[in-house]
Design brief:
The radius of gyration is 19 Å and the shape is elongated. A 5-stranded parallel sheet has the order 3-2-4-1-5, with helices on both faces. Helix 3 crosses helix 4 and helix 6 runs parallel beside helix 7. Helix 2 links the parallel strand 2 and strand 3. With 243 residues, the protein is α/β, with parallel strands linked by helices.
Length: 243
């Protein structure tokens, strides 16, 4: 029989936001892989997973999660991580890979699945959706993501502040991910496009160090890398105005 690899979204960090299907997938797998940036840290995915499965079932695999400057180094790290997971798949019938948020939204799992398809042909790959940071931030802040016919644009600010500014100039709600290191540029883009007043940002959602604040509070100080921003659509015309 073919081995199974399932990417399980475990949400932004609050263990209560893992779905029932996600918990079942974690518990049914023979081993659960969690990505870490180095062998000594405990990442957010691992901390969440440990609420539902015993520690001896968890395998920590080092990934080059933030390596963008050196492609050779990044590719070598990905190859090593992929081979480690491939080794587990050769020995176990089912392997779960826990990823924060959703496995199909800017996730490490996407690249791993591509690697495994080459290293272990025939592996059955599936995913279990997870709650995203933008959904959690919307719930915690009271920001409404979409109404009626409004579009929703999701931008990783690692692509550059200019990409975010272009999105803010358009219609609908804009969500920015991974903007912590460019908080000043993000604040400037919000001001220049007239989107600062209603925008909100959050980090460490569901964790003891959680912070949810108005974007107007942004200054030049860097924020946690995984900070999330919501700039709601401009809404006029009262209830149902965008229908």
């Amino acid at each position: 029989m073919s081995s199974r690899l399932v990417g399980v979204g475990v949400g932004p960090g609050d263990p209560e936001l893992v779905t029932v299907k996600g918990v079942n997938a974690l518990r049914e797998a023979d081993v659960v892989v969690v990505p870490v940036m180095d062998s000594g840290e405990r990442g957010r995915a691992e901390a969440t997973v440990l609420h539902y499965v015993p520690e001896e079932k968890v395998v920590r695999v080092v990934f080059a999660l933030n390596e963008r400057s050196d492609r050779t180094r990044r590719e070598a790290a990905w190859d090593a991580a992929g081979e480690r997971v491939a080794e587990l798949l050769r020995r176990h019938a089912s392997v779960a890979f826990a990823t924060i948020g959703d496995p199909n939204v800017y996730s490490t799992f996407t690249y791993l699945a591509q690697t495994i398809a080459e290293l272990v042909p025939g592996t059955v790959v599936s995913t279990v959706p997870g709650i995203t940071a933008m959904q959690d931030l919307a719930a915690r802040s009271g920001a409404v993501l979409t109404e009626g016919t409004e579009p929703l644009t999701l931008v990783p600010v690692t692509a550059g502040a200019a990409v975010l500014k272009d999105a803010l100039a358009g219609p609908g709600t804009v969500v920015a991910y991974k903007f912590g290191r460019q908080a000043h540029e993000v604040a400037e883009a919000l001001r220049e496009t007239g989107r600062l007043a209603d925008a909100v940002w959050g980090s460490a959602l569901g964790l003891p160090e959680e912070s949810v604040r108005p974007a107007a509070d942004l200054d030049e100080a860097p924020l946690p890398y995984l900070s999330t921003l919501i700039a709601p659509a401009r809404r006029e015309g009262g209830r149902g105005g965008k229908l």
